[in-house]
Write a structure and sequence with these properties.
The protein has 346 residues and is of the alpha/beta class. It has eleven helices and 19 strands. The chain has two domains: 263 residues, Spore Coat Polysaccharide Biosynthesis Protein SpsA, Chain A (Alpha-Beta Complex); 74 residues, no CATH class. The strands form four sheets. It has a five-stranded mixed barrel with strand order 6-9-7-8-12.
Length: 346
Amino acid sequence: MASIVPVILSGGSGTRLWPMSRPEKPKQLLALTARETMLQLTAARAHGDAFAAPIVVANAAHADEVEAQLAAVGAAPDALILEPAGRNTAPAIALAALAAGGDQALLVMPSDHVIADRDAFHAAIHAALPLVEQGWLVTFGIAPDAPETGYGYIKVGEELAPGVNRVARFVEKPQRAVAEAMLASGDHAWNGGIFLFRADAFLDALATHAPEILTAARAAMDGARREGTRVYPDAAAFAASPSDSIDYAVMEKADRVAVVPVAMGWNDVGSWDALHAISDGDAGGNVVDGDVIALDAVNCLVRSDGIRIATVGVSDLIVVASGNDVLILPRGRSQDVKLLLEAMKG
């Protein structure tokens, strides 16, 4: 099989990391966990002899920023597919699969996740390749370390090859008691939304299980406008696609679906609490960034990209300032940022 083509999905809005993450510059375009942005880190972990230049699917409004960031780390895309509107992951991946064509192996990755152990990730990819060559659709199951209710789960079935198992079933985001039972059972993994399959195998599965998505994506690419590596799918054709995730449209319905369970330091950085948890703090457990003074503070996350923030004698707070907006909330409540944004719309 030829080298693997990374498919980087960069269409998300990252609203839970407001006020720094905004529609005009969502979290994948921000440097949150390192000097590099989340997008740059994603490109870097699928770079080298085993990988071809990436295909990136992004919001058309971010085209210049995506190109600049990838060029800065030597990961210029083979194609930058600019969605005229977001239609969820299944149509986005369909666009990339049509651009790649043939039996090309595609490594599909969200652009805004952290993977601390790149070697473990590459070993998992290597373990999956023999089945991918046979036409299997492979997902990577994240070794769970807590009964998280915010993730979907995968029940790991029979072994198909060393390190690779059949997917017994996908499980929706569970209630706490169910999550605790799955964690205790030892045969479930988190669904991290990372996939490896041949382009033709995915398109065949779409044709069987979600033909409307394939029809719309094919029409959008047939009518696409191209400027260098930029691809602008036909807006009207793409708008006709159902909005559906790859899990619902394909992975939960297809017959030959496998999972590689892997512990690789994965985190979806889905909230300020998650960022605090994976970041190196000071002696008091504080994670600070920007023009920040934190005196006698304990277990706080304090970030600013502009104005100075000064805190004294506080604990377990999240304080984030960006532009004219300041967010303050107790640590442990950062999932409520979405509720806050809804309230602000009103």
